[in-house]
Design a protein that fits this description.
179 residues, mainly alpha, 80% helix, globular
Length: 179
């Protein structure tokens, strides 16, 4: 049986996030110094990140199980962020379990979808501070990577968030302030 969103022809927010992160990750690889090698690594990360997310979304139908998965992924993102900061200060480079900083940027962009989904929900809880902290570490690490692909993708992601969630007046103000 097809999911309800296919029948109604309306994509849920989670699927939009995953598609956006996948597109930005591929764009990051294409803009790298060695696009073919980076693209191969990014495809591996895309299959391990968003594909797992989408699969578990349909395998874990109950909302409670899905929330646990998103929370677990977001908190593991916090641990990866702390490890990346440690790597930067003690070795001077950020690899995050690979020998290339570009796949590290791609995995940060991919994993940033999990805390963003949880933060975009309107209910406030103290654990949201940890989700925000994991997203903050992700952004800091992308800037510390000092690679143009992940940084450019992060800017596109922030502009998407602004245009998705800000009011029309704020969007117009931001557009006119750029000129």
């Amino acid at each position: 049986e097809l999911p309800n969103w296919v029948k109604k022809k309306k994509l849920p927010a989670e699927i939009k996030w995953v598609l956006l992160v996948c597109i930005l990750s591929v764009m990051s690889s294409i803009l790298s110094q060695h696009p073919w090698a980076s693209l191969k690594s990014t495809i591996l990360f895309i299959f391990s990140g968003p594909l797992v997310f989408i699969t578990t979304q349909y395998l874990l139908k109950p909302l409670n199980n899905r929330e646990k998965f998103l929370s677990m992924a977001s908190l593991s993102m916090l641990l990866i962020g702390v490890f990346g900061i440690y790597e930067h200060f003690f070795s001077g480079q950020i690899f995050l379990f690979s020998m290339n900083p570009l796949p590290a940027g791609a995995i940060l962009l991919i994993l940033s979808a999990f805390p963003m989904i949880l933060l975009s929900r309107g209910i406030f809880s103290p654990i949201k501070l940890l989700y925000g902290l994991s997203l903050f570490f992700c952004v800091v690490l992308i800037f510390l990577l000092d690679k143009k692909g992940p940084t450019l993708c992060l800017l596109f992601l922030v502009s998407y968030l602004i245009f998705q969630f800000c009011s029309k007046k704020v969007r117009l103000l931001l557009i006119f302030s750029l000129f």
